[in-house]
Amino acid sequence: METAAVGFLTVSSAVTMSAPFLLGKVIDTIYTTGTDTETMAASLTSLCIMLTGVFLVGGAANAARVYLMQSSGQKIVRNLRASIFSSILTQEVAFFDRSRTGELINRLSADTAMVGRSITDNLSDGLRAVAQAAAGVSMMFYVSPSLASFVLLIVPPVAGLAIFYGRYLRSISKRTQDALAQATQLAEERISNMRTVRAFGKELSEVNTYTEKTDQVFSLARKEAVLRAGFFGVTGLSGNIMILSVLYKGGLLMASQHMTVGELSSFLMYTFWVGISIAGLSSFYSELMKGFGAGTRLWELLDRKPEFPLNEGLVLPTDQLKGQLEFDDVTFAYPTRSEAPIFQNLSLMVPAGTIMAVVGPSGSGKSTLVSLLLRLYDPDAGMISIDGHDIRDLNPYWLRSHIGTVSQEPVLFSCSIRDNIAYGAVDQEAVTTEDIYRAARVANAYNFIQAFPQGFDTVVGEKGVLLSGGQKQRIAIARALLRNPKILLLDEATSALDAENEFLVQEALERLMEGRTVVIIAHRLSTIQNANAVAVLDQQRVVECGRHAELLGNRQGLFRKLMEKQAFLQEEQQRALR
Ligand SMILES: Nc1ncnc2c1ncn2[C@@H]1O[C@H](COP(=O)(O)OP(=O)(O)OP(=O)(O)O)[C@@H](O)[C@H]1O
Q1: What distance in Å separates the CA atoms of residue 138 and residue 437, rounded to the nearest whole number?
Q2: Sequence spans of domains, the chain
Q3: How does pLDDT run across 444-475, given as a tens digit for each residue?
């Protein structure tokens, strides 16, 4: 496609460039003396008919060139967007701890658009300008070498200026895209957490902060405008000076009989063409430099290799998977806060098919334990294993396909309930409506979903804002059920649900846990009592582990203290209710 585009470009440019030469001939035919009017009219007619044909071909070739260049440019943008998105999604989780959502979104939308524009509109017109300038200059030399070398003296200083201009523009463009990314980041975070902004009444101050950020973009844009104004002023001026010098020097050459009026006219038209091409080249060059500037961060993102692979490593036969989990002497600190260890020499064993409740003070690392099992992070020392296999040797994709999760505040996507439940399946395409209904029934979600006017096609709103906490939980349970995992990682909701919701969620969770290895961050006494064992996290390790009753027996133990505190709280709550 690109080759065809270049072919059409050559044809259309050849036509455009031959025009002044042929028009010069027409003028010379008109001015020819010594022939009778009839002969002159005949040759003028045939010359004009021929020229019309040539122009028609040129017009068609130009249209074809624009179409091909545009569509192949857009294809490049599409591929660029897809590659950037794929590169973002394959990064390790720690990358997302460091990067900000809005910034990444800006890269994906604004930066790619900028690079796209510099490729699409620009490359095609730019190539055309280059071709025309080159052909124009050659024709100028062909028509009159002495006049051409005189006129083109202006080119070297303008080219020198362009190089400086390009460098500066590139750096401004990069800074502009960075400033824009910051503004987008702020907007994205505030808009997606609008309820909090409203609750704290921060609309006005957020608008001010956003305006400050956009002011930075504006001030950079102003710098760019000054720069452009200067550059375009100079290129426009140099174009006019070129024309003027052609008329001056050409006039003298004509006076001394070294040039005909047709030659001077041709030369003048070529000078115009070269002038126009230089103007085209300037904007091509500007856009290209801006594209390079905006592209810098994109290339960085494209070249970034994730710290751990997504789909490489050992895959065990599914029927051999038992689901025994073990932490062996694990030491871990989050990569973004490597000086603050979360675990030191932590060991914990969860036999296959049993339920391990994890309790501990806030910040003791209960959620971190779950993240490590999902291999969102790797431990700094020690080993985490499943059925004796180090999870670092296993294919992460395979590993996660056997783990189901339900978090405290389950995240749903803004699509239908049906799609949200189907999201849990390893092969989403293979899920039948019956599978989804079954999962919803087991999760006690079927009835309330069917009661919605649109049933399973109800769209849940961004992050599921159109549902209650208990409803979201039950949909998340149905989603986990559809995956039918050997291992379950659960985070029990702390927020109080009403009695009926609580019962329904509890019942659904119990059905979900049946026959699986479960690690549950427990908040309810009943969950702790029903678990096969309880692990108490504190001071970067497991301080106590055993059955509920055993742990209660240790009067000095942390578990007993935690339970007493909880019992105390429950009493308080009950008293308040009364
Ligand atoms: N992505 C992260 N990057 C850096 N530090 C983190 C990250 N996530 C959690 N932490 C830190 O790790 C520690 C343990 O957090 P974690 O969420 O595992 O605790 P938790 O026991 O689940 O707490 P809670 O009961 O309050 O939910 C905290 O001090 C927290 O600040």
Answers
A1: 75
A2: 1-303, 325-577
A3: 889 999 999 999 999 887 776 778 888 888 89
Domain 1-303, what fold?
Answer: ABC transporter transmembrane region fold (1.20.1560)
pTM > 0.90: yes or no: no
Task: Give per-residue pLDDT as tens, 161-186.
Answer: 888 888 888 899 889 988 988 998 89
User: What residue ranges line ligand 1, CB within 6 angstroms?
Assistant: 97, 334, 336-337, 342, 360, 362-368
Is 325-577 assigned to CATH 3.20.20.360?
no
pLDDT, residue 33, reads 65
pLDDT tens-digit series, residues 315-338: 888 888 899 999 999 999 999 888
Atom 11 (ligand 1): residue with closest C-alpha? Answer: 363
Which residues, at least 6 apart from 258, have a Cβ–Cβ distance to it below 8 Å? Answer: 144
Amino acid sitting at position 16:
T
In what order do the strands lie in the sheet containing 541-546?
403-406, 487-491, 517-521, 355-359, 533-538, 541-546
Rounded to two decimals, the ipTM of the complex is: 0.95
Rg, C-alpha atoms of the chain: 36
Going by alpha carbons, the residue nearest to atom 3 of ligand 1 is 334
In the numeric block, which tokens belong to residue 139?
């024709």
